[in-house]
Amino acid sequence: MLAAAGLALGLAALGFGSTRAAPGADPDGLDVAVRGGRLHVVTLGPRNAPGPAILLLHGASGNHRDMRFSIGERLARRHRVILVDRPGHGGSDRLGGREMASPARQGDAVAEALDRMRVGRVVVVGHSWSGALAASLALDHPRLVAGLVTLSGATEPYEDGAAWYNRIAATPLLGDVFAATIVGPVGRAQFPRGVQSTFRPHRPPADYIAMTRAELLLRPAEFKANAQDLVDLRGFLRTQAPRNGAIRVPTTIVTADRDDIVSPEIHSRPFHAQVRGSKLVVLAGAGHMPHWTETDRVVAEIEAVAAKSR
User: Is 0.85 topped by the overall pTM?
Assistant: First the structure.
């Protein structure tokens, strides 16, 4: 199912506080030094807000702005919000080679950044691909995780593999040539249609691509990193999914009955059965982008987990 996400937005489409302007970075963000390079982090909201901070993790084929402009600024009215460009995306370095396609390795980097920033415990919110990353943080870094929310999250093994162009882009040498020559012109021409398919059955905001700088995906290095993330996810989940029952923090699993990218039957319902005491929310008539289309409900569910986690 996650291959569809790549299809929609693929071809269709130690210096904490450093002021280095990385490509894709925000002027109000920070580049946090971690092992292998830097992660681009944006913080919103009051530093002294009660309760844990809320960590928002974007899905495949995107960057932190997708979470910021959907729910991040809303949540920041009452909470400290941390947004991270995952390794190789937006303004963040890849931090290594192919091993960085692993949600566990990305989780290690995010945990290191949180430690350097002295954030304390967080409620982790992961959309789509980052459902696996959010679960990995809860499993491997429990001292940092006060609560967990997945939004159309990929958390379980699935059968269909990555799209052909992601397999090519993830291939050594050939992938570099492919990403540098084919992806840009084809992707730019088809990008709006790809975004529309990701939002179905709804329509995306008219300014979504410009607002979120979604076309950063078409940069060769980022496209290759995204392809590796998607190609390797299925194998990673075969290993991680049997551990999901060890998650012991307040957990809410938000899914949608018309999500044809990350199937609720394959991912969210089995995850709910594994995580003791978790809450399952199935949004009727919604698709893969509930943080954009069902914003009020999603914000309310995140805030409810944050309240339980104080």
Answer: yes
Distance set, CA 76 to CA 114, 153, 224, 266, 291 (Å):
18, 22, 32, 32, 15
Position 13 scores a pLDDT of: 37
pLDDT beneath 50: ranges in the chain: 1-21
Overall fold of domain 2-308: Rossmann fold (3.40.50)
The two beta strands, 251-256 and 279-283, are parallel
Q: Evaluate whether 26 touches 212 at the Cβ level (below 8 Å).
A: no
- Give the relative orientation of helices 183-199 and 220-240 as an angle to the nearest 10 degrees: 50
Say if residues 293 and 199 touch (Cβ distance below 8 Å): yes
Residue 209 to residue 8: CA distance in whole angstroms: 13
Q: Where are the domains of the chain?
A: 2-308
- Which one-letter amino acid corresponds to residue 134? A
Other CB atoms within 10 A of residue 49 CB: 17
Residue 261 is given by DSSP the state: S
